[in-house]
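User: Hi! Is it possible to get a structure for several chains at once, not just one? Here's what I have:
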Amino acid sequence: MKSLLTFLQGGVHPPEAKGQTAALAIERMPVPDELEIILGQHIGAPCAPTVAKRGEVTEGAMIGEVKKGLGVPLHSPVAGTIKAIGTSAHPMRVSAPSVTIAVNHDAAPVEYAKSDWTSLSGDELLAKVHDAGIIGIGGAGFPTHVKLRPPKDAKIDQLLLNGAECEPYITADHRQMLEHASEVVEGARIIMKILGVAKCQIGIESNKPDAIEMMTRAAEAVSTADCSIVVQGLQVKYPQGSEKQLIEALTGRKVPAMALPSAVGVVVQNVSTATAICDAIVYGKPLYEKVITISGKGINKPANLLVKVGTKIGDIVEYLGGVKPELAKIIMGGPMMGFAVSSLDIPVTKTTSSVLFLTEDEIDTTPHSACIRCGWCLEACPMGLEPKEIGIHVEANRAENTAKFGVFDCFECGSCAYICPAKRPLVQFVRLAKMKAKR
Amino acid sequence: MSSRRVFNDMQVPENQSLSAHREWIVSVSPHVKSNETVAKIMWTVVACLMPPLFLSVFIFGFQTLIITAVSVISCVVVEYVSQKALKRPVTITDGSAVLTGVLMAFVIPPGVSIFLPVLGAVMAIYIGKHLFGGIGFNIFNPALMGRAFLLATFPVAMTSAWLAPVDGMAIFSYFGSGIDAVSTATPLAVMKEQGMAAFTEMFGSGASLYSSFFLGWRPGCIGETSGFLLMLGGGYLIYKKYITWHTPVAVLGSIATFTFAFGGDTLFTGDPLLAILSGGAILGAFFMATDYVTAPSTTIGRVIYGVGIGALTVLIRLKGGYPEGICYAILLMNPLATVIDGFCKPKRFAGPVGGDK
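Assistant: Yes, the chains can be modeled jointly so their relative placement is included. Here is the combined structure:
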């Protein structure tokens, strides 16, 4: 066993809480009667609908595209009729433009045939990645084809696949790696061809020993002299799945502030994005389904579900037998960085990794008190910032002076607020500071 | 949602369905937090101070327990009244007033009147803490503010109400008897005012001197005498990661170094071990200089702060008007904590390309 790597500075150890779903195989959820597909699923310009109300669509047909600017097309997850082009509830933006599709349950399922991709050039593969609507499904939602086309002057020497899954509760990537190890590796080979690199490292935290074993076997099966795919175990530490922290853990390189990973010669993709790339290139299937973890003590039947993009939380709850009366908080995403939602009408997007139904004893509701300057947040911050000073300044109405404490380097991992003994909402202070501070 | 399909045979009960009226919490991430709280930290520190308190009862008599109890109760009452008067939420259960009470009792002599800690509590909690804005906003360590106030207002009691340590079960003899009959002087005062010869005559020398001082059998303030038990408590706080080892090591290391250099008749002939074991050096290093609110919060800042405290302590001990200096040394360094924090920044993950603008 190779020694376990990790990043050097900061980090916290929240309870992993993955036991509820880690052993549950991915289950395909039946398609609900109606899907709401949000048009702006990725970072960049939102899609404009290419369909009209009452129009018929087939499974995998394009329903939206980006004419100008950064973006990828959007596909219909089902056969059905366009019921409306309106707005949907959204966890961050309150409401967002969307396409509502009434599902035709009688349509025959689409068969995707396997094809050989090895004869295609890097540019052709890249175009297919774009056409399949693939974005970073680990959470950020950055269009993948852009990430796979680094600046010309950047010398990329390796691909890193992110299988850390450091957020508590979530097991979606874990199950993907267990059940679709060969697809992850195939996706990695495709990306390596696009980037023209011969080395790939897959970083997996050591709390998933079965995934490390499966992935190692799958990687060894395809590794050759000019295509080396290595699985690397990582120590369990949050936020290991953050891009900069993962790069440091696997390569020892530090991405400078305000720079992209290509500045240190690497490209990072999530393992689930790799499977999506495999689906797109090998089977020609666009990205319109997503494996998500449904967990927490507040749901009757936790599960790892393969759902259609556009499935509403409410439909998932009904499918899983309802919620417990003790349910106190619903979170889209992980408990460290996810968004608490106020409505069950919010649809799943390509970047949703989990929906958590947490009870009172799983969450923290302690009111916060004044900063006692213990400095624990300084030790927890993986970026070496000063969360306590940002909080103190924001509370004193001096948010515009917080740039010097590193507020713009903060990626809001929440390690500081997790560790804070005064329970201060430091991420909230940071978000306020980012709005008001001068760069 | 009227035309919801039934996915499987499972019937969702009404109170678990979405159609039932429900409310849930919406707040900013992270949604899970560690189980460390300010109250847990404060009460843990209080618990770490209990062994030295029990030892002080053993060596100085029940008087010390009464003084400590009065000090704690006064601090809690003053905190309650202050917060009521200032219309702030009452937080007496968070243990911080209790901790101030214990620490203030620990730095006053065992033979003083029990009214002194009551006055000290008003100074420590009302003026030293709440008039500055309450917990987190005080510039000076409240317990030391209380001690400094008492030292200035009751100089005779605060510098002469010492008790000689007693052996074995002699504590019971204090019942009903006067206590000033056994008053004595602290090692540092004897050393300063009567010289080393008198000190050796009174306390002995060599290994037996160090071991009795280390265990706590010497005159001194209520909680400062037992280096062993204080280090045990402080060591537990380090193990729990509530404090880091840097501050106590910097304080004690610099006291030892500066005493060795300047504490003897000629350069480099001082007794560093005796300097650490006498006075309130160990109590101050582990429990006062590590007070979160009044100390810097970066490692390098804590080292600078600790060395500053050590240097000032030795300066006051050797050249100042008082035999012991760590109380004033910490109070002098307190306001510099934020200044030190201002230039001792944590190390950033990586700067921007081409360095900072």
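Chain B has a mean pLDDT of 87. The longest strand of chain B covers residues 162-163.

User: Great, thank you!
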